[in-house]
């Protein structure tokens, strides 16, 4: 889960990177936080798309209607 504190830290590191640069430890922290953020967003998008596909099909995940939904 992405917290407001994590987003604040991502933004703080980005500002510091632009102004005076980051230490190696900060670069590693920035990369880790960014990866967590991106993975979280990807998971949300996938979940929404899966829900949309199920709604469009109108069937349960065990149907054999040929809707090409990954059951």
Automatic annotation (TrEMBL):
Protein's UniProt keywords contain Transmembrane helix: no
GO CC aspect terms: cytoplasm
Signal sequence extent: none
Major location (coarse): cytoplasm
Source domain of life: Bacteria
HAMAP family: UPF0291
Family indicated by similarity: Belongs to the UPF0291 family.
Entries under PANTHER family matching the protein: UPF0291 PROTEIN CBO2609/CLC_2481, UPF0291 PROTEIN YNZC
Protein name listed in UniProt: UPF0291 protein SAMN05660235_02108
């Amino acid at each position: 889960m992405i917290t407001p504190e994590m987003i604040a830290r991502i933004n703080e590191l980005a500002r510091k990177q632009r102004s005076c640069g980051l230490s190696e430890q900060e670069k590693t922290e920035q990369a880790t936080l960014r990866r967590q953020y991106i993975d979280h967003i990807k998971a949300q998008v996938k979940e929404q798309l899966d829900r949309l596909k199920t709604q469009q099909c109108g069937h349960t995940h065990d149907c054999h209607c040929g809707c090409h939904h990954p059951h």
